[in-house]
Design a protein that fits this description.
With 297 residues, the chain is an alpha/beta fold. It has eleven helices and twelve strands. α5 links the parallel β7 and β8.
């Protein structure tokens, strides 16, 4: 049954259950309309936002960030826009995590319309949220206002891809004014969708080097579902390539290795080894520090 046929709830700022973090922001919404589990806003929340005109790399990064957040018990918040926002919501859902879509229009209005399936999945497993009444079609001026709620729900805002005029930079600006952590994924300096994120880093935003940085920045690496994270990582090993598995086997003794040691033990060339280690680090299996490579906890 579609959301239009279901009961949409309303809550005011004076009622118990209203998201506490929103009570502290400038321009606090007086009432919210929602469908789904409002209680997931009480968990640690992180916003993952970015450009609608995203690259394959950007969508992959957003999905991986959301997956790491979900594994750590973090609720992923975004705006259900096409591109990075959609990838973030899907990344959380695919890892059986919780996600909130803050909408520009009414909760019963799916925008963009082509996101209907995602919209229904979030309604079923997460939360659809808006300050606009049911039936309200989204208008351009509603999206910047929507963005203050996205950042207001969260303790951290991660921007994955953004042009210099991207709406996600408005979300980052709200986050700074709300004293929230702002971080960004570095991008190709020759790609227009990376100009905004790279500028954020230049201006002081924390760069995200690997997806596991997101829960680490929130201090939650060892707080939630550690056993579940280890179980999923073990299952993920089945998707690794032969060289990746070989390197992990050499590192399984728990001792740090240099790149040269790994090459000698595996017979893999130095050039290829560098690529293998980089991929393993991005997937969260290994860490590197001062030329040493070791198994990630």
């Amino acid at each position: 049954m579609r959301i239009e046929k279901r009961k949409i709830e309303k809550i005011t700022y004076e009622e118990i259950g209203f998201p506490l973090s929103l009570l502290e922001i400038s321009g606090m919404p007086k009432e919210l309309y929602y469908y789904g589990d409002l209680s997931i806003c009480r968990k640690p929340c992180a916003a993952i936002v970015g450009s609608r005109k995203s690259t394959t790399y950007g969508k992959w990064a957003a999905s991986e960030l959301a997956g790491c957040a979900a594994d750590a018990g973090i609720t992923v918040v975004s705006g259900m826009a096409w591109g990075i926002d959609s990838a973030a919501h899907r990344g959380a859902l695919e890892r059986e995590g919780k996600t909130v879509a803050v909408l520009g229009g009414g909760v019963d209005v799916c925008y963009p319309a082509r996101n209907r399936q995602l919209y229904e999945e979030i309604a079923e497993h997460g939360l659809l949220l808006s300050e606009q009444p049911p039936g309200q079609r989204p208008l351009p001026g509603m999206f910047p206002a929507r963005n203050r709620i996205i950042s207001g729900l969260c303790s951290l805002v991660a921007v994955v891809e953004a042009g210099l005029n991207s709406g996600s930079l408005i979300t980052a600006d709200f986050a700074l004014k709300q004293n929230k952590e702002v971080c960004a994924v570095p991008g190709n300096i020759n790609c227009i969708s990376s100009f905004g994120t790279n500028k954020l880093i230049q201006d002081g935003a924390v760069p995200i080097i690997v997806p596991a940085d997101l829960p680490r920045l929130m201090g939650l690496k060892d707080v939630y579902t550690v056993g579940r994270m280890a179980e999923k990582k073990e299952r993920a090993k089945d998707c690794l390539g032969a060289d990746e598995k070989t390197v992990l086997a050499v590192l399984s003794d728990g001792k740090e290795k240099t790149m040269d040691e790994l090459c000698q033990r595996t017979g893999i060339s130095a050039g290829h080894m560098s690529a293998v280690v980089t991929v393993l680090e991005m997937k969260g299996f290994v860490c590197t520090d001062l030329g040493k490579i070791y198994i990630a906890n």
